[in-house]
Amino acid sequence: EPGSPPEAASPPEPAPAPVSAARPAPEPASVAVSPSGPAPEPASVAVPPSGPAPEPASAPAAAPAPCWLDTETALALLASPLAGMDAADLRRLGRALREEERAGGNAVPPPSDELLARALAEPERLVAHDPVYARGAQRLGALLATARERLARGGTAEEALWDLWEGTPWPARLERAARRGGAAGRNADRDLDAVCALFATATRAEERTGGRGALNFLAEIEAEDIAADTLTRRAVRPDAVRLMTAHRAKGLEWSLVVVAGVQEGLWPDLRRRGSLLEADRIGRDGLAEPLTPGALLAEERRLFYVAATRARDRLVVTAVKAPADDGDQPSRFLTELGVEPRDVTGRPRRPLSVAALVAELRATTVDPRVSDRLREAAAQRLARLAALTDEDGRPLVPSAHPYRWWGMFEPTESKVPLRDRDQPVVLSGSALDQLANTCALQWFLGREVKADAPATAAQGFGNVVHVLADEVASGHTPADLDVLMERLDSVWNALAFDAPWKSEQEKGNARVALERFLKWHVMDRTGRTSVASEHDFDVTLGAGDYEVRIRGQLDRVEADGEGRAYVVDFKTGKQAPTAREVERHPQLAVYQLAVREGAVDEAFDGVRPEPGGAELVQLRQGAAKKDGGETLPKVQAQEALQGSAGEWVGELLATAAGKVLDERFTPSAGQHCTHCSFRASCSARPEGRHVVE
Length: 693
Description:
Elements: E1 30-34, H1 71-79, H2 87-103, H3 112-121, H4 131-152, H5 157-166, H6 170-180, H7 182-207, H8 214-223, E2 241-245, E3 254-259, E4 282-283, E5 286-287, H9 293-308, E6 311-317, H10 354-365, H11 372-387, E7 425-427, H12 429-438, H13 440-448, H14 457-474, H15 481-492, H16 500-522, E8 529-543, E9 546-559, E10 565-571, H17 579-583, H18 586-596, E11 611-622, E12 633-639, H19 647-662, H20 686-692
Parallel strand pairs: 1-2, 1-3, 3-6, 7-9, 10-11
Antiparallel strand pairs: 4-5, 8-9, 9-10, 11-12
Helix pairs in contact: 1-3, 2-3, 4-5, 6-7, 7-8, 10-11, 12-13, 12-18, 12-19, 14-16, 15-16
Keywords: ATP-binding, DNA damage, DNA repair, DNA-binding, Exonuclease, Helicase, Hydrolase, Nuclease, Nucleotide-binding
Region (Disordered): 1-63
Domain UvrD-like helicase C-terminal: 200-321
């Protein structure tokens, strides 16, 4: 995404780890050979011819002072997580800086790389440029200036690092990635570990004598960089399988060789090897003729011969044969081996992976249909896998050890209930719908266990809009869009977004939502006036055999000319319920019951009002054309609960209270599963069933 450091960009490691030399391991016993081309050689770099650079036609009268930051370092910093700029942002900023030079009278401006380095060293030059593409450079330039000032005042290397670390959104991004888990989470954990090691190194450098401070730190970091020969073949484990191309296998031998994927169209591959410029035709004596299909076929046959003759004792050649004639077919080379190919139909009993092997062994150890001897053999194999470690002593198959297994103990059961049945059940309006209609397990894990995911940027968006709406309703802030946007700007940067473009997009959405709110706030709604905003309430309601204590906060309470109370709930989500769902919206209905029980008496001077109804005001969504159009929010009203019309609410309360007291939290699959944090451990979902069952 624009503005955020891409994962594939591999930003510079915060602290290079020491490199240890390993003794080359002996060759393994087997090898898998691929028909693809040779392994890529190290990247080469084009070097311009030596000699003086051509002089420009005209030059400025005075040469600029030398920059303290070289271009290579500047570009690396701009592409790092400290600035988070991508190639497009760098190009746009470079062009803008060159245009600025031309406008200043320099007909032949320096290269953009040099201008970027100079602008980064003097961040005041970036003030006039569009933050859309210059924000990262502006932020990084200010950070570098702060760090330089810190060091100039005698600050330590650790303090300068903290200035750089805390001045970017990188820590928040790493934290979010680490919490999400998976491959990205593991990468984030490694980055955070590297940052911790970097700060520890800075602390050690400062503790040393000599008073050199940051220079000591830099010297220690530089000393940890050990040059390595990238052309040297990597050491391999003696008991491992080597995977290589047929070109790389030339001249080597193994006891067992597997040549996999020998498909027609892949081997032989009769496509031209050259590129658009046909560099493959450049020969010693000039431009050569392109290879004919026959010559290509002969070359591919020789390559297959090389791969097949690498085996001393046993050769296995595999291919896939599709039932249809136009599907994958084995290569014509298989018929030239002198051995009749053997068709293997059906699927293997398990995937050929370590995880599948561990699962099969675990299942065998508890299978009553197999013999005791086989179960013991499976347990011994698991023990051998669990004992395997790498050179650093870390387990190679951690899942083989029983301490990593789930479901090894019987479920526990407490004889003492979690709640006293003689006391009211404490719930909120939103919890009622989740317990009774959505998913009781999701409520239990999120609210009771408190295992829900941390607040998202969408929740932060809603909180900010709610606070500003409360300030307007309470009179602390005037109903002026410019004033509200100033208040929004003061807190917006505290919200964590995945990328700057997303932050800008959501900020625009927040502006539209506030515009709708202000127009709705000042319009005449049948004489209703606001009497309370963000009003806390705590009431106890009877529900069949149970008592339910409802606690919460009303976004807004209004009164009409007849003294009836209307509850308004502001919504900032992207989805709105249907009109039928609003009629039986549990949260709005509970709010109306709370009004009946005295939740807003204080706002009505101690007089208990009759509920006039409740409304959802969808600030993200515009109203229909007949209701005022897009400039007004969509308003969804629930009629006042009169007489027996509200009996369904009592039934919902009783159902929810019964589930909580009986501790019956069974999962229910539905649309709500899309954004559920517990799908991977839920028995109602396929991905969670293998974990809990």
